[in-house]
Design goal:
Layout (H helix, E strand, L loop, with lengths): L9 H7 L13 H36 L11 H9 L11 E5 L5 E5 L5 E4 L8 E7 L3 H12 L4 H14 L9 E8 L1 E3 L4 E3 L2 E7 L5 H4 L11 E3 L7 E4 L9
Parallel strand pairs: 1-3
Antiparallel strand pairs: 1-2, 3-4, 4-5, 5-8, 6-7, 8-10, 9-10
Helix pairs in contact: 1-2, 4-5
């Protein structure tokens, strides 16, 4: 916040003001006394400005602590669990493992399950809702991706690094098909446990699969399964249904 020193400011007022009735101490001149008054008022003005800045900073901290800035705030664990499970097939939700974000923003297991699914809560840093569930055999591959992103390795470099590690045997990756379920939306209501503008898509990982081994096209197509990254450690089938008008 900036306080302008214009015609209407405290500083300009102090410079313009002269005290006609004040007795001169020790016989000092009017000019000396006026300079002293101006310096005093300038010091008071600076004090007011600094105080206003401190009050503004304190208000901003209070607003953040009270959750006024919702984006980036970590929701209650129960809310995160409810949202994460919506990405799973309905008949697999009750026994799925759930990973959610702790108060420090770190992803951790908050519910141990007994089936093959691991569900991830929507990241609190995202303005929209993004939950996912995947087969537990994909966890080493997914966890490695998260670790690399934390180190600043993102995008294509992140994928290539993991593929190299899978090829070398350093990173475990199942060779049989394993599925990732994705649910996105504009927001999530923890009271009704519903996602606004929901959209689902699926990814089936089949490392090193090709068009000839799967019989699938490698051309992206809405509503039709197609093979992405064929022949690589990250080869997978994409299933992306067309969005409805409500989802557009």
């Amino acid at each position: 916040m900036r306080v302008e020193e214009g015609r209407g400011s405290l500083a300009a007022w102090a410079l313009r003001t002269r005290v006609e009735q004040t007795p001169r101490a020790n016989g000092g001149s009017r000019e000396t006394e006026d300079r002293w008054l101006v310096r005093t008022r300038r010091a008071r003005y600076r004090g007011l400005v600094n105080l206003s800045r401190l009050l503004l900073f304190a208000w901003m901290l209070g607003a953040s602590g009270n959750g006024l800035g919702k984006e980036g705030a970590v929701p209650a664990v129960e809310s995160q669990i409810a949202g994460a499970l919506l990405a799973a097939p309905e008949d697999m939700r009750a026994e799925a493992t759930v990973m959610a974000y702790a108060s420090e923003g770190e992803l951790e297991v908050v519910r141990n399950g007994s089936n093959t699914l691991i569900c991830l809560a929507s990241p609190p840093t995202k303005p929209s809702f993004q939950a996912a569930c995947y087969h537990r055999d994909l966890e080493p591959f997914m966890a490695r991706g998260r670790a690399l992103r934390k180190e600043g390795v993102t995008g294509e470099e992140n994928k290539q690094q993991r593929w190299k590690e899978v090829e070398s045997g350093a990173l475990p990756m199942p060779r049989a098909p394993r599925t990732l379920h994705v649910l996105v939306g504009s927001s999530f209501d923890p009271k009704t446990k519903t996602v606004a503008d929901p959209y689902r898509r699926w990814v089936v990982y089949i490392p090193f699969a090709t068009a000839s081994s799967t019989g699938l096209s490698t051309k992206p197509s809405l509503g039709v399964p197609w093979l992405m990254h064929p022949g690589t450690a990250g080869a997978h089938i994409m299933i992306t249904p067309p969005r409805t008008k409500a989802e557009d």
